């Protein structure tokens, strides 16, 4: 089910786009163009309480972003109150480790069955 999600744009304004809530504090939305409108291609993971997107490399599919949301939601972080501006280094490290593990796992699956 699609629901309105507030997302920060590159110019730091907020726009409302339709997205799918995949964890209590995370939603998958279309990527936004520079003008703040939904892009034709690309998805992003948004932290719903702040509207900030979770930066990842490449072009993850819906299922990959769903897995990332589940991994982030499982961390011992109060995502309802979380803002990156107030995070101590230990919390940033937890998130960084989760993102790195998710990205490594995602890329290792992409090479399964490939021929070189």
Give an overview of the whole structure:
With 116 residues, this protein is α+β, with helices and mostly antiparallel strands. It has helices at 62-73, 89-110; strands at residues 2-8, 14-23, 26-32, 38-47, 52-54. A 5-stranded antiparallel sheet has the order 1-2-3-4-5. A hairpin with a 5-residue loop joins β3 and β4. The longest helix is centred in the C-terminal third of the chain and has 22 residues, at 89-110. It is globular and about 35 Å long.
- Which radius of gyration do the C-alpha atoms yield? 15 Å
Task: Give a count of the beta strands, DSSP E runs of length 2 or more.
Answer: 5
The overall pLDDT, averaged over residues, is 87
Strand content: 25-35%
Structural class: alpha+beta
Give the structure's gist in a few sentences.
The protein has 116 residues and is an alpha+beta fold. Helix content is 29%, strand content 32%. The protein has two helices and five strands; from the N terminus they run E-E-E-E-E-H-H.
